[in-house]
Amino acid sequence: MHIDRSHRAWVLWTAALFMLALCGYLLYAFRFQNGPSGGSVPGLIFGGAGYILMLYAAFLSVRKKFSRWRIGRATTWMRGHLWLGLLSYPLIFFHAGLSFGHGLTFALMLILSVVIVTGVAGAALQHYMPRMITERVGRETIYYQIDRVQQDLAHEADSLLVSLFRKDTQYGLLVPAAEKTHANATTLVVLSEYSGDQLRKAYEDNIKPYLSHRGAYRHTLHDARRAKSFFADLRTLVPEPVRPVIDGLESICDEKRDLDRQSRFHRILHFWLLVHVPLAFLLLVLGGIHAVMALRYG
Amino acid sequence: MAEQPPLRRARTAKWLSGRYDLNYFKGGTGFSRWRLGFCLILAVVALVWLGGELAAKRQTIYSAGSVSAAHSFFGSRCEVCHTTMIKGVRQVGGFSQTASDEACLSCHQAPDHHSQGTQPQSPSCSSCHVEHQGPVRLAHVQDAQCLSCHSDLKEQKRDTLIAAHVRGFEGSQHPEFAPVLKRLDTPPAIIFHHVAHMGKSLKTLNQDLVALQCADCHRPLAAAGHSDWKYRQIDLPSETTPAPDASHRVRPDSRRELMTMPSYTQQCAGCHDLKFDSLVADSLKHPESQKDVLALPGILQQKFQDYIRRHPEALRETPQTRIPEQNSTPAPRDPDTWVQLRVARAEHFLGQNTCKYCHQLEPMSGAAGLPRVKESGFKPRQMVNAVFSHEAHISVTCESCHVFSHSDNLQVTEKLLPGIATCQACHNGTPAQEGKAENGCFLCHQYHKWDPQREMFPSKYTIEQLTGTSRAADKQTEKPAGEK
């Protein structure tokens, strides 16, 4: 999510609520006889407010699951998740009297801190990375369709090669005209056996494994400069009319490189959620237990 | 003829759209499965953790913090304090397990704040003695607790004689100590000037030159009888008692907080004898009460009768006094008259000189001719509403706090009781910090009105009940089967 001017109202409201909470906390901390404590009335108000904000932030996942519900726009929920979730952190700290506590409360504060840190990191990533992906990944596709697109690219490369090795005549390869002279025009091109073997070998050893293996970041063809050199060498093996086949293979490899890059960016962009979401879930569960036990012994 | 495969990539919109599965979003993705898996794993780990604690009957994970030093030995047994008690009976099964006052009072005595006058409702124990703050001392109550009433006590108790507006201990937040103010208003009944006794060479009755030290007259109660008082009455037997042996060793400040009260026989008699007549060598024994004072004429009469019996020639000597009126009286012709005359002169001398030298006297009381001596008002504890330990301040010289005037003007009333400014010189920080000693209310004052004569406290718990373990001594006595 891009944090732009449309967030201004959320930022201002969050800052205002934070300042209000801070003033309330300072008054309570300095005037309360035994200092701040989670069990005091102001402490319970801070704790309750913080927990409600956490519940609201967690409700985003429910909102996503049931996107047809008419309970506000997804972007509004996302902004609320970001800013009110962030506000829950100081509120919970005020509840705890600016300490990390002991036992379960220590675990809760630690989990909350990790949730907030990963959330802020995730927000920063989502702010900067989409633009980076647009710049660096020319042929971006739907992330969850990458495997399918990759298979498609491999088939496409195979079919290009098939067109090249069809032995239609004893004099050489009969290939379609590279340039459209007129409909159904063909050109007879003689490709030496050595060149054919070299081309086939390059395809079988390099291009095909590269296309069939997702995330082949260490492959020669994943490096754009080395790939360019590789295909330039291949072009020297074939006569001019066959070069569009090599161009096609290079284009396929470029697209595959984009897919791999997109995969990597996507993982960076979303990996934090594997920490953020489960810990947030755990936080809500343990937070509820903490509330019940604190009321029991408080 | 078969269709010729393309020699170059054909990327049309139709071809591109054919690449995608349009229902891809309906199924779960690997990423979401991982996320759900982690959620479940963490939830299971947390439940196993909490379940393990529950199975082991440990509830300390729900504790808000470690307990105070005094409670640490049963700190893992939450149920000792967190229990509902009704009339001393532990209630089992309820949801609420708040630490009640009754739980505190099952181990502790806690007298009321004050037994006289109107008192606001006593706060709960835990509102002042806040637990789960780490290994702190629970008696060290926050100043705010005391100041909530004492900052404006008139609102709580209109007829109070205690300072009504105390806001702390710094600067003018705390009024001057009441005994100091009282001493300034009313001069002490004993007229004594330290400057006349300290720092000069004085002569004892034995004509020895001495320079007095503070400890010659002032000692902690516990040390009062361990060695002779240097300037005690000459014929007073030594009251030296043996020092307690190591097996009776007690706390270092035990009975060393307060100083003994000076008395004539122990501190003054070595230099100041109570002579009453130039003819009689004896000195008087110092009266300890007004009853003893009233008995003095009889003692004097007895001493003079003894003297005239042994020295009948004294009747022929012309009495010479420095009092002109007495010189005009005719010389006595018989022993009785002589004794009466001598007694009257001695009483006059004692009343006008000897007693007055140290005591404040009330007007002569008719027939006896002897003055009424004002009570000295000496008390071992000057500040009855505060606690002070000389032993705790042993590193500081006496003169640092008990400042006496070095002028030789003995008419100036002595003010040796240290005022609040003396204490504030060091005690100027809460909590204690570098360069500042603690000055919380608890340091000098006590909330509970402890009665030294209070009744024995009926203890309720055994060590096993509190700690949840069996004693080592019991284990040692348990012998394996068959062993004799």
What's the quick description here?
Chain A is mostly helical and 298 residues long. Chain A contains 8 helices and 2 strands, in the order H-H-H-H-H-E-E-H-H-H.
List the helices and strands and how they pair.
The complex is a heterodimer of chains A (298) and B (484).
Chain A: H1 8-31, H2 41-65, H3 74-95, H4 104-136, H5 146-164, E1 173-176, E2 186-189, H6 193-212, H7 224-237, H8 243-297
Antiparallel strand pairs in A: 1-2
Chain B: H1 13-17, H2 30-55, E1 84-86, E2 89-91, H3 101-105, H4 125-128, H5 143-150, H6 153-156, H7 178-185, H8 194-197, E3 202-203, E4 209-210, H9 214-217, H10 264-268, H11 290-294, H12 296-310, H13 324-327, H14 335-358, E5 361-362, E6 372-373, H15 398-401, H16 420-424, E7 427-429, E8 437-438, H17 463-467, H18 472-477
Parallel strand pairs in B: 7-8
Antiparallel strand pairs in B: 1-2, 3-4, 5-6
Task: Give structural notes.
The complex is a heterodimer of chains A (298) and B (484). The longest helix of chain A has 55 residues, at 243-297. Chain A has two domains: 5-139 and 268-297, no CATH class; 143-265, no CATH class. Chain A has helices at residues 8-31, 41-65, 74-95, 104-136, 146-164, 193-212, 224-237, 243-297; strands at 173-176, 186-189. Helix content of chain A is 71%, strand content 3%. The model of chain A has no long low-confidence stretch (mean pLDDT 87). Chain A has a two-stranded antiparallel ribbon. With 298 residues, chain A is mainly α. With 484 residues, chain B is mainly alpha-helical. Chain B has a domain at 290-366. In chain B, the strands form four sheets. Chain B has a two-stranded antiparallel sheet with strand order 1-2. A two-stranded antiparallel sheet of chain B has the order 3-4. In chain B, helix 12 crosses helix 14. The termini of chain B are far apart. Chains A and B meet through helix 5 and helix 8 of A and helix 2 and helix 5 of B.
